[in-house]
Amino acid sequence: MLYVVLATFAAGMATEYFLGNRWIGFFAVGVPACLYFFYLDYQKRAAAKKRRRRKACQT
């Protein structure tokens, strides 16, 4: 999540410098990056749950 925060902050600073509006960068990078982060976390938890279920069925 630290990468998401840093990338969003950098995008906000860049769009502030080039376009004069930092919110464009915040939303253009921050929202998709947060959604991607949560998607990866969901996939990781689902895989771990599936592994635990398989392990429980084998015993």
Describe this protein's structure:
The longest helix is centred in the last third of the chain and has 37 residues, at 22-58. By secondary structure, the protein is mostly helical. The mean pLDDT is 89. The radius of gyration is 18 Å and the shape is rod-shaped. It is 93% helix and 0% strand. The chain has two helices and no strands.
Structural class: mainly alpha
Fraction in helix: over 70%
How many individual helices?
Answer: 2
Strand residue percentage? under 5%
- SSE sequence, one letter per element: HH
CA-atom Rg in angstroms: 18 Å
Principal-axis shape equals rod-shaped
- Could you give the count of β-strands? 0
Mean pLDDT: 89
Report, as a whole number of angstroms, the end-to-end distance.
36 Å
Are there runs of 5+ residues with pLDDT below 50, and where?
none
- Largest sheet report: none
Care to give the gist of this entry?
This protein is mainly alpha-helical and 59 residues long. The protein has two helices and no strands.
What's the layout of helices and strands?
Elements: H1 2-19, H2 22-58
Helix pairs in contact: 1-2
Descriptive labels:
single chain, mainly alpha, 2 helices, 93% helix
